[in-house]
Amino acid sequence: MDRMDVSLLAGILGGLSTPVWVYDLDRARIIWANGTALDFWNADGMEGLALRDMTPRSLTHVERLETYRAQFAKGKEVIEVWTLYPRDRPVTVRCRLWGIAGRGRGFMGVEILSFVDGGTLSDVDGAGQGANLDLARGATWIDMARDVELGRGTPSAVSLVLADGTVVAQNVAADRLFGRIEGGDGKGGAWTFANRFVDGAQADLLLAEVLEKGQGAVRVVAMNTIQGTTFNELGARRSRDPVTGAPAALVHAIDVSERLIREDALRESEAEQRRLTADLKEARDVAERANAAKSEFLAMMSHEIRTPMNGILGLAEQILDTDLTDTQYRALTSIKGSAEALLAVINDILDFSRMEAGRLTLEVVPFDLGEVCSAVLDLLRPAAEEKALTIGQVLDPRLPRVVLGDPGRLRQILLNVLGNAVKFTDEGEVDLLVSPGEGPDEIAFVVRDTGIGIAPEVLPSLFERFTQADVSIVRRFGGSGLGLTISRRLATMMGGTVTAESSPGRGSVFMIRARLPEAEESLVRDHTMRESRKLVPPRMPNGRPFRLLVAEDNAINREVLKGFLEPHGVRVDIAKNGVEAWTMADQKIYDLILMDMRMPEMDGVTATQRIRAGRGLAREVPIVAVTANAYAEDRARCLAAGMNAFLSKPLRRDALFQVMHEILGEAETLPRGTGKAWADGEGAPGDGGHEQEKGRVMVIVDEAHLGELEEDLGVDVLASMAVRFAEAAVERMTHLSDALADGDVAEVGREAHSLKGVSATLGLSAVRDLSIELDTACKAGDLEAARAVAQSFPDVIAKTLAYLADRYKSP
Hints:
By secondary structure, this protein is α+β, with helices and mostly antiparallel strands. It is built from 27 helices and 24 strands. A five-stranded antiparallel beta sheet has the order 2-1-5-4-3. The chain has a five-stranded antiparallel beta sheet with strand order 7-6-10-9-8, sandwiched between helices. Strand 9 and strand 10 form a beta hairpin. Helix 11 runs parallel beside helix 12. The longest helix is centred in the middle third of the chain and has 64 residues. The protein is elongated and about 130 Å long.
């Protein structure tokens, strides 16, 4: 290579718009840099840059350099992200590294391609004439040759272009991209800069911009190359031809075609992802709307079917209690049995729909395992005896007597499987064997029968919905085809499953597994006593019957409820819609309100909210929802509106009386009731108490809430909490009195808010309600109203503490 080539390439490198330098791998220092690199490193010249201490400081650094040597020896380049400190602050850059051979030592070329932290190469200040200065200072031929080697090894395609568009010099990368200048074999002629562009006008625009402004904005353009049309990222800055001194542009190009292809593919993938997401969202919305419509339909059908069923079963029960001939009794018993069979099908469909929607939940209570099994057999024994079948059970002595779980759902599973066994067995026996299972807390229930059996090809689909062994089964035995499906899903919810083994003519064996942890026997004692007592409506201590308001729009259901209650001395008033119920509750004192959810003019939920929002005595009257809507969310809506309990239709007499006992039943033994504890009356919100008070009945505590806390936390814990509340009460009252005397409404409000929280947690209704009134007055800034409310606190606190002392007194 002659000196002319060296001068041209040295000029190219000197004016290159990207920082480029040579690093001596053996001496660990920069030995050459172009002007842009000197500006980047904030160095006046090579002497200043060479003074920088670049000695490797760690074994990791040395190993890294050796890795570079190995890659360069294979002819490979390295692209890495580095963090450099050119001006004593970190700069993150993307670098291209390549090997340079010279004087028997290893050198590394470094070019900064881009700033990772969001900057650009044009952010580097300076004109970039450092390399020319070094040459002017007397660089040796060897140094200039090294410069040439560096220029030729630079991966970016670098070209020196005169103002008229003539390409006078370029490096090896440009040769590979556009073809060598000497041969003129570039597409369209490598000598003309414009021929390199698919749109030649872009070349003129770039040169004009560079010569006028000193540099051109980085852009991506389509270019004609040896490989065909490619997309290249171009950068350019003003320079001079080192031979003639004529104005020129130093242009560098990087092929970004693959990057653009990847970006286009990524954009297309993202667009497709957005389309898929939108489609999925639309599908989800459609499914949710369909599911909501199905749920609403089932709720409506449940209401419409259960309402007449309630009348049929209720009236049948009432008539069966009268004097009937044998023929009448048998006919009425058949009617009642048919209605109950229809109700069982309805319940199966509703249970399955709740399972499909994920809205069926299990309760966890202590219950006697043997009693549940015996009760199921007692229900099925009459049907078995009619067919002369032997039906029995064997309980393994290793079983716990009391377990935790949902006794109602376990009873449902056993009734279904044992009921099928009795139904499909014409002679022989049906047995229930109960023993500990294989897993922890698992109990296995085995049902064996000597019935007709099940064909092998039917067994795999036996637990699928609406499946029965044979079409003739439906005609002969009936059923919804959902019983086993529901039973298996219930068992799954209990941590187990249901399986079956059978062969035609040899009977069947069903295995039910469920996780039922052992529980303390004392936990089930109170529940058992409640179940065993005779269920009749409770009465007031003075013998006065309770007064009930029945809000029900269906005439038959009204008659059923009156038929349940009036024979036992309960006085019943009727409201045909929510508006009447709201009005009557405001005008007359009742001990209990039975409120239907769906009524014309105003539904039961709205009527309850209106009653609870009032300021009269009715706001404290217990309200029980009576509805054909059997979903869990319906129960939640009722309770959220202020109702005290929930009964589903068809309404059974025992269930109604049970709720009445739970809410009103032990009023004569106050303050230890199952409903609420009352004061300022004769023990309950009856006529006497209201007349004497001539004001609001005071509810000291919410017994139901307090009872739940005692069950969850234990009586000892609640007793300790009550003691702490009593100890703090005096100090709280003193603090409240001082704040009122000082007229500090904000402090009174804070004290009221605190009292409201702790009293609500403990179920101290009177303190909670008074705290709410005080808090409301303080938020309104009404000091006089706050003082008026606070006058009631001493009496309320005294009665509350007296109640707690009596409830948790030491034996």
